[in-house]
């Protein structure tokens, strides 16, 4: 059990779930402030963004992969101010303005305070407000881990980024352009101008064209959509290409990395068997990515933001007491960029 630093515990407001329920409302309640471990920073939350992941956790879609103890405070993105630090913390001090995606087993940013391991935290970009900064961590880390880590995207390569006007898409387009790639994306008629302004070379309007008939010879596809789009994406890739999905199905490698038991590993093997077989026949690599917290990578993203290579794209800001409305809005799938909750 990790060591904790004893401090006076005060109640804090938070939005939490008591049980998994599709479309269920979060409950506003008072709970104790989280305990502070030796390597933790306690952050006063100023803003938190909403991700599709929050709705999926609430609905119970990840209860086998992420076995949370209920009641659970939701929220996977934060920007705020450090108020206390554990005795072993070296990188941060009270007063620092920071942002982060907490580790998956320590989420809970829809609250007044959150404790996080300092390894998962980075100094907030100096040119962003708290609300803007809160929109960045999860989607930017996802884009980084797909394009830089997993795909090793290089200058001159061709990448297709699905759902270019969404949270991940808006950041991934900018990152891919910074890496020197030729970028195509799928979007609706209303968002063509937006994705072009972010650097997309080709914007395929899915209401008018079938992307798999328009695009060929691509090196990488970042998929965030459903099964049909996933399978059609194989037609876009050249042999040796990489199909990387953040919406599933999970594959055996993910199951092993996640520490899943044998039975769950076999279930994920079966779930992804069809797409892995189809990809294999075309000499294309399929993999599923569930992003992980990483303060070091976030610090590199900070540098890109401060240099003007990446900018946040935000749709709406909701006050803290309208957190449920913010989740409902994200669930419509119509948001351009990110939806943020102003906590303070």
TrEMBL record:
Q: InterPro entries, from UniProt?
A: ADH-like_N (IPR013154), ER (IPR020843), GroES-like_sf (IPR011032), NAD(P)-bd_dom_sf (IPR036291), Quin_OxRdtase/zeta-crystal_CS (IPR002364), YIM1/Zinc_Alcohol_DH_Fams (IPR050700)
Q: Which of UniProt's keywords are assigned here?
A: Oxidoreductase
KW Metal-binding (keyword) present = no
Q: Residues in domain Enoyl reductase (ER)?
A: 23-341
Where does the record locate the signal sequence feature? Answer: none
GO molecular function list: oxidoreductase activity; zinc ion binding
TM segment ranges? none
Full protein name: NADPH:quinone reductase Zn-dependent oxidoreductase
Native species of this protein? Neorhizobium galegae bv. orientalis str. HAMBI 540
């Amino acid at each position: 059990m990790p060591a904790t630093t004893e401090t006076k515990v005060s109640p804090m407001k938070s939005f939490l779930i008591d049980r998994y329920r599709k479309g269920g409302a979060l409950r506003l309640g008072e709970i104790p402030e989280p305990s502070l471990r030796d390597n933790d920073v306690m952050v006063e939350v100023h803003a938190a963004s909403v991700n599709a992941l929050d709705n999926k956790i609430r609905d119970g879609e990840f209860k086998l992969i992420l076995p949370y103890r209920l009641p659970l405070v939701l929220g996977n993105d934060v920007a705020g101010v450090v108020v206390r630090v554990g005795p072993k913390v070296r990188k941060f001090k009270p007063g620092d303005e920071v942002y982060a995606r907490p580790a998956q087993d320590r989420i809970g940013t829809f609250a007044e305070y959150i404790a996080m391991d300092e390894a998962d935290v980075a100094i907030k970009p100096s040119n962003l407000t708290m609300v803007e900064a809160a929109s960045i961590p999860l989607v930017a880390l996802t884009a980084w881990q797909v394009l830089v880590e997993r795909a090793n995207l290089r200058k001159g390569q061709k990448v297709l980024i699905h759902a270019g006007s969404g949270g991940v898409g808006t950041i991934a387009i900018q990152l891919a352009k910074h890496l020197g790639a030729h970028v195509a994306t799928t979007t609706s008629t209303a968002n063509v101008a937006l994705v072009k302004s972010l650097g997309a070379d080709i914007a395929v309007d899915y209401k008018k064209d079938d992307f798999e008939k328009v695009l060929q010879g691509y090196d990488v596809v970042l998929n965030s959509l459903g099964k049909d789009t996933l399978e059609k994406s194989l037609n876009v890739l050249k042999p040796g290409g990489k199909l990387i999905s953040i919406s599933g199905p999970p594959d055996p490698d993910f199951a092993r990395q996640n520490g899943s038991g044998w039975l769950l590993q076999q279930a994920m093997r079966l779930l992804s068997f069809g797409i892995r077989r189809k990809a294999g026949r075309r000499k294309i690599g399929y993999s599923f990515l569930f992003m992980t917290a990483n303060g070091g990578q976030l610090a590199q993203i900070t540098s890109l933001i401060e240099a003007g290579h990446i900018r946040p794209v935000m749709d709406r800001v909701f006050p803290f007491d309208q957190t449920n409305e913010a989740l409902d809005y994200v669930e419509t799938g119509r948001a351009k960029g990110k939806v943020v909750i102003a906590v303070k």
